[in-house]
Write a structure and sequence with these properties.
single chain; alpha/beta; five-stranded antiparallel sheet; 52% helix; CC_BshC; Putative cysteine ligase BshC
């Protein structure tokens, strides 16, 4: 395994402008996304109020169910003694969700180590599991390659209703059947049995989606001492009680500030990704097991189209007595993370950073500033088969990604093998048929206007048959060159599945099945420099 670095232009204008330091977007953040920004942020954190012993106890209790490693204990001790944290987070995806979840965890570990060396002070990595999220459709699927195409395998999730990932009790027989189908779609290798056993062993000891996710996170990063916490953990919710009160008291100001920031971003040429509304409360409440979004209406907080209503005082009482019923949305989650932890830096993907561009004013409402917002490390894993194909066709990774070189070569191949004479015969016949039907149409319309739709329909039947003939000709030509077309498809399915980076599509288990269970450990051992360059990992 080796690493190569190349700059790949982001598809997001906001992200491209942000990492390249353009003033139009930089004004929406407190710091540049650079290692040099960490020193100034560290000084600001000296006044950050946090009950480190109590919060460390919350983390220790939550992580203890999977067994605390020596590295995790050292990180907890460092945190208790004053260490700041770098934070990332993600929903509790099945088998960790796409690769970028693992990349986020790798990013905070790498960033914490490099920041510790640069600042000469211990920095601790933390993973915030968004277990309160109830959009189970986003986490209950996996992608695999089937017959040369990228296929999405969905697991039915309607039975969980609006339960969150942490409160939904897994239907283990269904999940197991789903995962068995997934593993059957993977090629049998010397590693398949081991990773199959790992997955099903952890599934057996899990109760919820979040449990399963946390078990995998712990398995991959135990030796690194990555700290992790479920946002829906009841002990954490109790710790957050005073912060929920502040958010309830100032919910109108939060909503107004974020909506204004999105309007300003739009004026500067950036899309408003949240679509924030000024009547939003930016909080959820759980009622009878269902997580419902709150809005402000006529001085009250309402949910379920007004069927459920709370006065501000009632909601403050809930925050005081049963804070586990409350949860954050995309706007208040960053605020909560900052209130709970002394955050040196937040690590996010392009979508998250687009959200964060609207939050500076909301942070300032509470006397806070944005932490250093760092883009996560972006990685592409290239297996040996793909390496050989890239060499065979003299393709460069950057050209494949930036210039869609594979699509160009495929089109060139198609153009070179087309049966142009046969296609011309079909085209000429279609022209003759259409010309003849014009005359038929003209003649029939003089007899009866009721006949013209029949003429038009009859013409379309002939055109359809000629199109069918042309497609069959093309299929036969492609079939005769199927090996080369198959190679091009294999390269794209590996490097650009569904037209985007593999880290947004595939689970790490596809690559563990090829490489071995030590994949994540070996990735962490690579000399990954924390910068804006894309990391190409040659397996």
């Amino acid at each position: 395994m080796k690493v190569e670095e190349q700059y790949i232009e982001s598809a997001s204008k906001l992200m491209s402008d942000y990492v390249n330091g353009r003033p139009a977007i930089r004004q929406y953040f407190s710091y540049d996304p650079q290692m040099q920004s960490l020193e100034g942020r560290l000084k600001k954190l000296q006044s950050h109020s946090v009950d480190r012993i109590k919060l460390s106890g919350v983390l220790r209790q939550y992580m203890g169910r999977n067994g605390l490693s020596e590295s995790a204990e050292r990180h907890l001790k460092s945190f208790e003694e004053g260490a700041p944290v770098v934070v990332t987070g993600q929903q509790a995806g099945l088998l960790t969700g796409p690769l970028y979840t693992v990349h986020k965890a790798i990013s905070v570990i790498v960033l914490a180590k490099q920041a510790s060396a640069q600042l000469n002070t211990k920095v601790v990595p933390v993973f915030w599991i968004a277990g309160e999220d109830h959009d189970l459709a986003e986490i209950s699927h996996l992608y695999r390659e089937v017959n040369g195409r990228v296929d999405k395998l969905n697991i039915p999730h309607a039975e969980y209703g609006k339960h969150s990932a942490s409160s939904a009790t897994l239907n283990k027989p269904k999940i197991a059947s789903f995962l068995e189908e997934y593993f059957r779609s993977l090629p049998e290798t010397e590693h398949t049995k081991e990773i199959h056993g790992l997955v099903f062993g952890l599934l057996e000891q899990s109760v919820s989606f979040t449990d399963f996710f946390a078990c995998l996170l712990d398995h991959f990063f135990k030796e690194e001492g990555l700290l992790y916490i479920d946002a829906a953990d009841e002990n954490l919710r109790n710790y957050e009680s005073p912060y929920f009160k502040q958010m309830i008291e100032r919910s109108a100001e939060i909503a107004e500030t974020v909506a204004a920031a999105e309007r300003s971003l739009a004026k500067d040429g950036y899309s408003a990704v949240i679509g924030a509304e000024e009547n939003a409360a930016h909080l959820f409440i759980t009622v009878k097991g269902e997580r419902l979004l709150l809005e402000r209406q006529d001085g009250e907080f309402v949910a379920n189209n007004g069927a459920i209503r709370f006065t501000k005082q009632q909601l403050l009482d809930i925050a005081e007595k049963t804070p586990e019923l409350l949860s954050n949305n995309v706007v208040t989650r960053p605020l909560m993370q900052e209130m709970v932890f002394p955050v040196l830096a937040f690590v996010g993907g392009p979508g998250e950073i687009a959200y964060w561009a609207a939050f500076k004013g909301a942070f300032e409402l509470f006397g806070m500033e944005l932490p250093v917002v760092m883009p996560r490390l972006s990685l592409t894993l290239v297996n040996r088969q793909t390496q050989r194909l890239l060499e065979k066709y003299n393709l460069d990774f950057a050209a494949v990604v930036n210039e869609r070189q594979v699509a160009i070569k495929r089109n060139e191949l198609m153009d070179s093998i087309r049966e142009k004479e046969a296609e011309a015969l079909i085209a000429e016949l279609q022209n003759q048929v259409e010309k003849a039907y014009k005359e038929i149409h003209k003649k029939f319309s003089t007899i009866s206007t009721g006949l013209t739709p029949i003429v038009e329909k009859n013409l379309q039947l002939h055109v359809k048959q000629l199109s069918f003939l042309k497609n069959k000709l093309e299929d036969e030509v492609v079939l005769q060159n199927s090996i080369e077309f198959g190679h091009y498809a294999a390269i794209e399915n590996e490097l650009l599945p569904n037209g985007g980076f593999q880290e947004r599509i595939y689970s790490p288990f596809i690559y563990m099945n090829q490489y071995g269970s030590g994949l994540v450990k070996d990735l962490l051992a690579l000399p990954l420099k924390y910068d804006k360059n894309h990391k190409i990992i040659w397996l």
